[in-house]
Design a protein that fits this description.
about 110 residues
Length: about 110
């Protein structure tokens, strides 16, 4: 139960703290210049809601499923919790790609 609480805390905090630290590290010196993403652009609401919901429901199904010896409930909870971790990873990867220089679209080779 303590690990579930700690895992949920880490997932939740990482959605708020990591984007803030990343933005300050990468964009603070460019603040106000054209092309600099705003702080809210670092967050993806849909991925955050998916991770929070799947993580909470996954733990609420997984722990009682294991305690009751129900393989199907434990499996369903584990799948939901894995979805939460996957959404968190996607959110963090998306955050790292924001503001990266993209090569110019060109139809010819240099």
């Amino acid at each position: 139960l303590l690990l579930g609480w700690a895992g949920a805390l880490v997932l939740g905090v990482s959605f708020r703290v990591l984007p803030t630290l990343t933005w300050h590290h990468r964009f603070a010196t460019r603040m106000g210049r054209p092309g600099t993403p705003a702080m809210p652009a670092m967050l993806h609401r849909g991925l955050g809601i998916t991770a929070a919901t799947a993580g909470a429901v996954g733990l609420l199904v997984l722990v009682p499923g294991v305690a009751a010896g129900s393989a199907s409930a434990a499996r369903a909870g584990a799948v939901l919790f894995t979805l939460a971790i996957t959404a968190t990873i996607l959110h963090h990867l998306r955050m790292l790609l924001i503001g990266r220089a993209r090569p110019a679209a060109s139809g010819t080779l240099p």
